[in-house]
Each structure stands twice: as C-alpha cells, then as structure tokens.
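Write out this protein's structure.
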Amino acid sequence: MSTKNTYYAPTGGLPPQTQLLSDRAIFTEAYAIIPKRVLTDIVISYLPFWEGMRMWVIARPLSGFAETFSQYIVEVAPNGGSQKPELDTTAEAVLFVVEGAMDITIEGEAHHLEAGGYAFLPPACKWTLKNNSDKHVKFHWIRKAYQFVDGIDAPEPFVTSDHEVDAIEMPGTNGVWATTRFTEQSDMRHDMHVNIVTFQSGGVIPFDETHVMEHGLYVLEGKAVYHLNGEWVEVEAGDFMWLRAFCPQSCYAGGPGPFRYLLYKDVNRHMPFIRPER
C-alpha cells in the first residue's frame, strides 16, 4: 500500500518562440507517443454541459489502430464541474485524479477524491462532478462502450484510491515489478481494466509482450526505455503511449526512482467479427 506516490499532471501554456521544434512525438502503424510537451493550450478540447473545464484528448477510437477506448486528461477550475458529464448511456468510465481534489456524486452518494483517487462508473450510471476547492483539479477520464453479456450483470460503481490498494508483485521479480489492480481479474462483469503498474529502478519486462489487448499507458512517475514494435523510445512522467492490439512491447525502468504508469486494457470478451452485409 503506497502513501508517497507522485502523479504528473500537465500545466498547459505555450512554449517560447525560441524552443526547438523537434521532440519525441511519433505516430506509427502500431503505436503512438504523445510526450508531455505536446499538451499545450492550443490542443485542448471542451465538452457540453461542463463549466470551468478543459481537456486534452490523448486517445480516441480510431479505425485500424486502437478502437475500444477514449482517454482524456481533464482540468476543472474552482467551482467548475458538471451536472450532466456523460451523454452516452452505454459508456463506462474510470476517473483517476492526478492533482487537486474534487467531489463526485454517484447514484446520489457523495464521494471526495484527492490525488490518487479512483472511481469506476458503469454504463447508465448517474453521476455529477464539482470542484469545491480553491485550486484546479486534474484527472484522467477513460471511457469505453460497455460490452453487455446475456446472463451477466453490469458491474457496480465503486470509489477507492491508489493509496488504499496493495500492489501485487509479479512472480519471480523480487518486488521490482508490481501491479495495483482495482478490480479482480476473474470478475467477468468487467470488460476493461485500468491498473497502475510499478517498476523499481532497473526492473524490466524481459520479453516483447505481444497480445490482443489494446493499451493506453500514461506515465505517472519516473522514466523508462520502451521497445515498441522493434523500435526503442524513451518516455518520462507525463508522456502517453497508445498501443494497438499485438504491438510488441517491453521496457527497462531507468531510475533513479520508481517508474509508474496508469494502464488501460480491454479484457474478458470474445473478439467481435466484422460481418459482411447481405
């Protein structure tokens, strides 16, 4: 259980005219790197029925790439929020706070979330959000169209925190690789997992994982070198990695402190067929 974690949050603004143009941003057929320097004021978006809000869209369903989820970094000013934040009744979501504090009401029950706070919101869930503090709050909003299964109920909403959940060590790693799981892997009600993965300095994924699950990986803390689809890339706190299904992936954690990232993946469902029209 962790109590000293830090979480990178973008600050916006614009770089000076003297800054070099080159950076680590790249979009390939298998992966994309969105470095933290890209998250400026000129790439923000807004949503209806929100006040005092702006956001950076760092992933969206994209045909032929990663198709299952969207991910926003949302900033809400003091007294800002929404009484009608989600307009799609089939969308489920996870909110994860990286800076500041906010209050959410889920099905009439009030919750206070600070940095590290985590909320799961099932489809058709009624919720509202308000920043009652005197500082901006920033959080990740990960959305997916829930895949209903006959005979299995949709999951219930819940609120927890990174600080309240013990990380589970990967076997045979002596604690250098661990995952904080907010839902049970065997719970078939859930069709997505949003976890936090932690590597201690020098920890590695010692092979190129190559699997059907799409990924969004936002670096919360630290730095690492990733091997993605045969290419080496460096990432640091504030960077986002967007991976399509079957993109080979492995990494070395660079230190000196822990390397941690917020991880999305789609799970527990059959692979849908594209059926020809008759």
